[in-house]
């Protein structure tokens, strides 16, 4: 009897948490279909006019383009530095490994305002403020840990003796990594890349400090919209971001499911 009660309590708790997490998403998506200029939920009707407003507004289109540009460069930089770092930290005895890992992960826990101000001051003499590349470099500081973490998790489930056996039988070490190790850890790399892109798309403070308001990614455009005038256009843009995030998480889940289990030696 007590066990059954515990199961019901646990189930109710899970449902309550899910409802708490999903409610804001439902409200935002619902408000985006409101036919009037009022940002309200539930909507008084159904209309796609605010999505059409975004599609016909050059400022919103440019914001999405800037977001894609910065996100693509951020993802590339995160992979360029995160993949070698993930391999080194997971497979080799690196001096100061604990310190290096802590420094990498500190980007995820450090207050964003601290990172934003320090990045701005660091960029001033370099002339990287107000540049797409400068913003992408700043965002990649937060993207690299996602690549390192997910790649490390994949490598921990991989049996390295398979790679060593290939080398012993005449395969070049690089070829052994590419043909044996990489197919197993590729899903982890893909997941890390997706998370790196998403954290870039939603980053606000660093984007404001580095890029300003001349070239605005979508997060800054939403922030500016809240300051100027609140209307369902903001809900429509937010809904597009939510749907993009859900799509990325679905791709990440599929990548994880597609990962072949590491065979045992």
Key traits:
265 residues, mainly alpha, MetI-like fold, 0% strand, disordered C terminus
Task: Describe this structure as you would to a colleague.
The chain is an all-alpha fold. The chain has helices at residues 2-31, 49-55, 58-91, 97-109, 112-123, 132-156, 160-168, 173-202, 205-211, 218-228, 232-257. Helix 3 crosses helix 6 (132-156), helix 4 crosses helix 6 and helix 5 (112-123) packs parallel to helix 9. The termini are far apart. 31% of the residues are buried.
> What integer value in Å does the Rg equal?
22 Å
Shape: globular
Structural class: mainly alpha
| Number of continuous helical runs | 11
SSE topology sketch:
Elements: H1 2-31, H2 49-55, H3 58-91, H4 97-109, H5 112-123, H6 132-156, H7 160-168, H8 173-202, H9 205-211, H10 218-228, H11 232-257
Helix pairs in contact: 1-11, 2-11, 3-6, 3-8, 3-10, 4-6, 5-9, 6-8, 6-9, 7-8, 8-11
Question: Summary?
Answer:
This protein is an all-alpha fold. The protein has helices at residues 2-31, 49-55, 58-91, 97-109, 112-123, 132-156, 160-168, 173-202, 205-211, 218-228, 232-257.
